[in-house]
Amino acid sequence: MTSIQELIPVLQTAIGPVILISGVGLLLLSMTNRFSRIIDRARNLLAISEAQGGPLRQKTLAQIDILWSQAKLIRLSILFAAISLLCAALLIIILFITALFGIEDAWLLSVIFVVCMVSLIASLIVFITDINRSLSAFKVELYGYEQRKEG
């Protein structure tokens, strides 16, 4: 059995992954909010497209296609963020198990930490890609506005 004096450094070490969980949780919250907005916007555009015809309908459908690809990107970003959270939680559990049972397995802890960070990086890269896609949708919308203004 491990004494409290031996457990305190483990608690101090576990604070890092706990802070990571909090930060990634906030990122996840903003990603799910963005996902919801994309879905709502796509539904609104779909309803609008049914009342339109011709080139205006084609532009609206192009926006819906962009929103579909954005939704897939955000879903992937959320998946990677969730994997990062799971790895951080697993890291905390393994830290305590190794301390309680005196297991010296730095490789396992290192691998889980690396997977956690790689998942977080992948999530952020996909999220940045989604932000760039939103500019594409906005460009399509602006192009339609400029044509209506000229016409």
Secondary-structure topology with pairs:
Blueprint: H1 4-51, H2 54-101, H3 106-150
What percentage of the residues does DSSP assign to strands (E)? under 5%
Distance between the termini: 80 Å
Low-confidence stretches: none
Biggest pleated-sheet summary: none
List keywords for this structure.
151 residues; mainly alpha; 3 helices
Give an account of the 3D structure.
The chain has about 150 residues and is mainly α. The protein has one domain (about 5-150). The chain contains three helices and no strands. The chain has helices spanning about 5-50, 55-100, 105-150. The radius of gyration is 23 Å and the shape is rod-shaped. The N and C termini lie far apart (about 80 Å).
Short description:
The chain has three helices and no strands.
